[in-house]
């Protein structure tokens, strides 16, 4: 494995924590003579990076181009370049991470948080909020990250005083100084932690809003006027938090993988403006910011404060991080003319950059990448016979994809083994890039099969909504002749398809399988729990029903779910029953 990046890391970390405790535990720690002067700084932030080191393709629609282009988005080394450029251009910069730094790729599977800590150490991260996925491996998961991090991890509403391994390792907040002016950063974490992760029983979660207000009061009593809430509770809860407390200036959030900003011209659907301005109880404005997920974006907020600590102006400029190579939907290089058009479009696009990689961070990442590549050759299972893949069933493969039902089953198993009690999993064929040959299945095979590393999102849906979803997916294929990757596969959901019928009458005989394996008619008025990948949850491939529903993004990744499934099953065979029966 990779040796420690810095032999002094433990000493630096504990010195930092000692200083932090002095600052946070003593009213005079911030200085009894707090400067009264205006201050300006650039706030950089990320969240839910989920161990994503390298770019993954994401379809963007550029003005002047007829079809969407799969543009690689996300890269720790390119993000580091933007962070460095900002520091070179601005005298005062604060860089924060809103949690879920880990879990989601082989980098975490193999190195347990060490790789993530090293790259963010090199970027000069100032502080990180604890996220739920930091506890997916219990106390050991968060400890591995803490042991290698040279930045503090904060959470005010997480009480670890009864845990001998964590006590004193996670502070409620930090106090940093910008041009001599103290700025407090308070950490907050969702109270759903025990339900969606694996924290130790000794850990106690206190109410978010109450704890935030009590901590703000304690800090303002020390004459600290600029307060940032660094939270991992989700966008909607962040807005509620901003409305409910007094004394906070900025909420930097994560957990919900929320895209904010003006990106409609790229074919994206942001959930709100960047920043989202919320009016607090005392009538002051609080700025709420998120930075999507998976190192795809670097949040940037320039803020000017007057001498009393009041925000007098602000400007948001979040930046999508693009990379290369530029390929078409068949993973072939774009023709030179289209490549040039896309590069020009990226250069002209507001809120998008194609930076060169930062050499120092690229070197660190490459050290781990070489081992990830080596691990890709590890055999995790076998295919008893070929498991071919096709998007839409045709006369050559009337039963459709042999691998898609198994992928769908793996999603259901993953979330149910983590206590979510899902009834149905739906997998689109476009999310699967290839079939599996008979013989050995390696880790590389699985990552080639599911390269997008979508997260798993759970919805509450009525039987009628499920039927509508199936009808919409088929209509996109049959009527619109598009979204062929949207053909649905689902273990635990059976239905008949009549492609000759009109829209609304193509799906019939829907059945759902209960926990004992028995099949029952789908009740249009009953509610079911459905898991899909995050691409479908966002309305992709014609699944527009999800646009009107509120889902819960678990943060679990489809690639990892299928890897675990193959490792457990050892041998894969074609499914005994397909989810659909096509009527000629």
Labels describing this entry:
584 residues; alpha/beta; Purple Acid Phosphatase, chain A, domain 2; 5'-nucleotidase,  domain 2; 2 domains; 8-stranded mixed sheet; 6-stranded mixed sheet; 15 helices; 31 strands; globular; disordered N terminus; UDP-sugar diphosphatase activity; Calcineurin-like_PHP; Metallo-depent_PP-like
Describe this entry's structure for a reader:
Belongs to the 5'-nucleotidase family. Keywords: Hydrolase, Nucleotide-binding, Signal. It is an enzyme of class 3 (hydrolase). With 584 residues, this protein is an alpha/beta fold. The chain starts with 8 loop residues before the first helix and ends with a strand. The chain has 2 domains: 43-52 and 74-319, Metallo-dependent phosphatases (Purple Acid Phosphatase, chain A, domain 2); 379-582, 5'-nucleotidase,  domain 2 (Alpha-Beta Complex). Helix 2 packs parallel to helix 4 (114-123). The chain is 29% helix and 24% strand. The longest helix has 17 residues, at 9-25. Mean pLDDT is 89; it is low at 1-32.
